[in-house]
Amino acid sequence: MYRLQLMATAAAAALSVVFSPAQAADVETVTVTAAKLNEARIGIQPQTGASTYTITDANIQAQPGGDNNLLNQVILQAPGVAQDSFGQLHVRGEHNGLQYRLNGIIIPEGISVFGQTLDPRFVGSLKLITGALPAEYGLRTAGIIDIQTKSGVFQPGGEISMYGGSHSELNPSFGYGGSSGSFNYFVTGDYLTNTLGIESPDGSVDPLHDRTKQWHGFAFLQDILDDNSSVTAILGTSNDMFQIPNQRGLQPSGLDGITGLGPAGELTANGQFLFPSDNLNENQREITHYGIVSYLRTMGDVDFQVSAFGRYSSLFFTPDPLGDLLYNGIAQTAYKRDVAYGLQAEGAWHVGSDHTIRGGVIYQADDLTSRTSSQVLGVDAFGMQTLPDTPITIADNGDKHAWSYSLYLQDEWTVFQTLVVNYGVRWDQFQAFDAESQISPRVNFVWTPTDTTTVFGGYSRYFSPPPFELVATTDIALFDGTTAAADHTDDTPKAERADYYDVGVEQKVYPGLTVGLDGFYKASHNLIDEGQFGAPIILTPFNYRSGRQYGLEFTGNYDDGGPLTAYVNAAYERAVGKDIVSSQFQFDPGDLTFIATHYIPLDHQQIVSVSAGASYVWREIRFSADLLYGSGLRKDGATPNGDHVPDYTQVNLGVSHAFDLGWKPLTARFDVINVFDEKYEIRDGTGVGVGAPQFGPRRGFFVGLSQAL
After folding, report:
1. In this structure, are residues 668 and 704 in contact, taking their beta carbons and an 8 Å threshold?
2. SS3 34
3. What is the helix (H) or strand (E) element at residue 589, kind and residue range?
4. Calpha distance 304→294 (Å, rounded)
5. Helix (H, G, I), strand (E, B), or coil: what is residue 199?
6. What's the confidence (pLDDT) of residue 613?
7. Helix or strand or coil: residue 208?
């Protein structure tokens, strides 16, 4: 309540300058009501006992690049997060498994990676929620990315901006929020083009054939119906086009197990066996649209919210018809589309001062369409390419409907003034390429023995179906007798079932400085992993029969309200799996045999990850720096995933200044990404489920101008 009074006082002081006393009183009432409803909505979904790391809009602006960064680059500064190619993030040794929420409402994950679809410009604050999660979180449990969007009530005004520099980058954008009576809004949009759309495959400053063009848009619309209820709509869109970058100086060298008709055993197609890799022309388009409509009401001791959500996601890959065939034995045009829609209804009942009962139901349905047309070459039973060497076209199309139901009920019990326990149960059921269900108990606690010490932890049983939109629909029998033939079975991916334990402590050392330590352990059956198989950048899920993940995270944050803010996060993690039991046709036979009886590191295991940053304001000039350190993802060694790529450190610097030109500030910024121009590998192209090599960005210089509106 004290926070609401402060908001009301600040709003009244600001608005009295522009409005008459009566008008200012009306706007103040709307502001207080919006704040009250915000508090009620956030209180429906607690994070009691979970590990929660918050990044605010101010934190984003303080990074080099500010809100011109992609969202995955922002999240990389959180603890326990490792970077991968194509904007992927690995949290605590998991492969994706992230759930994205806007104002607490689930957005189903699409075929493309959301870390490059959602825009930091509309982020008011962002929480990465991990660990032993309370019962309201399920299905995707590696981490919850919960974004509280900006609102025209609390962030009126906006800006128009131009940003660009190295790699021929241009990034114009705008954002604006406002209100009229009980209605408020915030909208943003941007266009991005550069010549580093996907990571360089050879570490060069400007890779061959790597242009991207991207359009993003977002709108938050809210109408406050009365003192106790509101209706909110969220709309977003992303249309991204990528060229697939080429490695330089290669020629086709044939396929393992197949003898082609070329002079050195290379494949031939219509008599051709030479094709410079510089000339490959592969392209991919990714489209995502999403929308949410929510009704929120608070009635004394009861708060509830009912939301309908939907997401359209499509991916279209076009190969190089001849080049892909000669290099890979298949040139596949691939189109995948997934339309997801559902309902999320949740509520909280405050029973006296000691108990809060929360419950909810979530329903989601998906309609998947897959269309592929593949050109391949004929092969006989002995692995010899046959004549004629004219490409054969194979069509493989499929449609599938899937659904899932989730129910949960939990009680947040204040046992003592210093001890809160949240216990509950969750039930999930899904039907897609498989049908499974599970009841999952959860228990969490938060203990505050002193004003400066917080101990938290818990146990959660998890149930995670394979990502339906990514499950391959290929009929592998269609490719028998061709250069794309599979020689293994193709069992359907199963749901992962896991036991998760987490305990941590947070200590306020002195005003402004907080440090924390958090440990976790996870044991999984049918652990879900994902790999890229083939030229299209489409990930395919598969299962290890058994999996183990464990680690320790350290966090440190300094912010005393002064000119200096700083943070450092460090994580040590292990992630291993044994016995691949689904999608086996994608793997090397020797690897399958070894992994069947041996635990191996997961390809996305990075043993040590560090992120750090600082910002200092001097005479209205902000100086900022951040860094990422990684010990390296896995590559093949003496055994599958038996080694790792070299460790790396990327340092970024930025400076910005707001100039007072007599109207509204004009902000200029200058950023240097990878200051020391470290050439480092993210992937080397080997490892279980790994596609092509990728390198981190080389040194880049960027400038920006932003005019406040």
Report:
1. yes
2. helix
3. helix 589-595
4. 10
5. coil
6. 96
7. strand
568 touches 610 (CB < 8 A): yes
Residue 568: CB atoms within 10 A of its CB come to 17
Strand partners, 251: none
Q: Whole-angstrom Cα distance, residue 135 to residue 424?
A: 6
Q: What are the C-alpha distances in Å from 600 to residues 474, 584, 632?
A: 27, 16, 16
**138, burial (CB in 10 Å: exposed 0-12, middle 13-18, buried 19+):** buried
What are the φ/ψ torsions at residue 113 (nearest 5 degrees)? Answer: -90, 125
**For residues 617 and 566, what is the distance between their CA atoms, to the nearest angstrom?**
12
Residue 165: partners with Cβ closer than 8 Å, 6 or more residues away: 671, 700, 701, 702, 703
What the block records as the tokens of 456 is 């938290």
Q: Evaluate if residue 331 carries a pLDDT over 60.
A: yes
Distance of CA 616 to CAs 559, 612, 653, Å?
A: 11, 14, 12
pLDDT on residue 584:
84
> How do 392-416 and 564-580 pair as beta strands?
unpaired
CA angle 107, 112, 116 (to 5 degrees): 80
Instruction: Name the burial class of residue 283, with classes exposed (0-12), middle (13-18) and buried (19+) by CB atoms within 10 angstroms of its CB.
Output: middle
- Confirm if 445 and 456 have CB atoms less than 8 A apart: yes
Q: Quick check: 87 and 72 in contact, CB under 8 A?
A: yes
Q: Which residues pair with 694 in a beta bridge?
A: 683
Q: What would the two tokens of residue 403 be? A: 């659904």
40: nearest Cα among 425, 346, 424, 444? 346
The total of other beta-carbon atoms located within 10 Å of residue 189's CB is 18
H/E element, 325: helix 323-328
Contacts of 139 (CB under 8 A, 6+ apart): 99, 404, 406, 428, 430, 463, 464, 465
Whole-number Å distance between alpha carbons of 88 and 532: 12
Q: Which is nearest to 543 in space by CA: 479, 486, 464? A: 464
pLDDT at residue 7, rounded to an integer:
37
* Angle, alpha carbons 273-276-277 (nearest 5°): 115
In terms of residues, how long is the chain? 709
Q: Tokens 């500010």 identify what position?
A: 66
**pLDDT confidence bin for 168, thresholds 50/70/90:** very high
Reply yes or no: is the peptide bond before residue 465 cis, omega within 30 of 0. no
Output DSSP code: residue 491: P
Are 456 and 527 a contacting pair, CB within 8 Å? no
Place of tokens 């990930």: 539
**DSSP, res 104:** T
pLDDT over 70 (residue 25):
no
**Which residues fall within 8 angstroms of residue 88, CB to CB, at 6 or more apart?**
72, 95, 96, 113, 115
The answer, yes or no, to whether residue 374 has pLDDT greater than 50, is: yes
- The stretch 150-178 carries a mean pLDDT of 95
